[in-house]
Specification:
269 residues, alpha+beta, Thrombin, subunit H, 2 domains, 6-stranded antiparallel beta barrel, 4 helices
């Protein structure tokens, strides 16, 4: 076992230093604190101040995190509310536009509006089935073969009815057909479905003016007479008949509100 031995002179020095420190520690200042306490306070003050500063910075950081989360949550909520308001405004704009178009429709056809049903287009299937879906049905008085009238002219006829919806067969449908007359042409023809529809059944080499109105005659018992289908395009001879393509006055892509009329056979007095 190793023993540590101090030289006598060093031992005396250490004892003196210890006695000096001990006596100095007992010396009190005017405030009643000992020198040792003052020394300890002086030595420990910087670390304590640093620790306090770090603690306060950490609390500020945590509070900043909480505030940031709250701010981000509020921002997300406001963005969601803004999106909902934007969608609501779009719906209101669509409703206003539909009401305006409906008002124009009723004003344009006052003699037909009394027995007509105003309906909105809720779906379109133009390329595949050439149909529209309306938000009115048999509960609103709509029946099969009811003519459908847009703001600028005829759109087609109802070919399917449910309680609260109905389907419109457009004039572009391959099976569509209606009796038609062309302004300036004596003979009545048959408007056949297609894209574009065409008037057939006219005598060969019939002179047909361009952009002449094509209107319904009511001979087929569906469409009331005198309603506009569209205007003529360049005529051509096809075998024994003159065929006239028709530019529709009310393309299905532009229609949002329609008047559904009673069929001509039912509305006749």
């Amino acid at each position: 076992m190793v023993r540590i031995r101090l030289r006598p002179d060093l031992a005396i020095v250490l004892v003196c230093v210890a006695l000096y420190v001990g006596s100095a520690a007992q010396v009190r200042s005017q405030g009643g604190r000992t020198a040792l306490a003052t020394a300890v306070a002086a030595i420990s003050a910087p670390p304590l101040a640093l620790a306090n500063a770090v603690g306060m910075a950490w609390e500020d950081f945590r509070a900043g995190q909480r505030n940031l989360r709250a701010t981000l949550g509020e921002l997300t909520r406001q963005r969601r509310e803004n999106g909902e308001l934007r969608r609501a405004n779009q719906l209101l704009d669509a409703e206003v536009a539909a009401l305006r178009q409906g008002s124009r429709l009723l004003a344009a056809y006052p003699s037909l509006a009394e027995h007509a049903v105003l309906a909105r287009v809720v779906a379109r299937d133009l390329p595949r089935t050439h149909t529209l879906r309306l938000d009115r049905g048999s509960a609103d008085g709509i029946v099969i073969d009811s003519p459908v009238l847009g703001e600028r002219g005829l759109v087609g006829r109802v070919d399917q009815v449910l309680a609260h919806s109905s389907r419109v067969q457009l004039l572009t449908h391959p099976a569509a057909a209606a009796a038609a007359a062309i302004a300036g042409v004596q003979s009545e023809g048959l408007l056949l479905g297609g894209d574009p529809p065409r008037v057939s059944g006219l005598p060969p080499y019939t002179q047909v003016p361009l952009d002449a109105p094509v209107v319904s005659t009511g001979s087929e018992g569906i469409y009331p007479p005198g309603l506009l289908f569209g205007t003529t395009m360049e005529a051509r001879n096809d075998g024994l008949f003159t065929v006239v393509p028709v530019r529709l006055a009310a393309p299905a892509t532009d229609v949002t509100v329609v008047l559904v009329l009673a069929p001509a056979s039912r509305s006749a007095p």
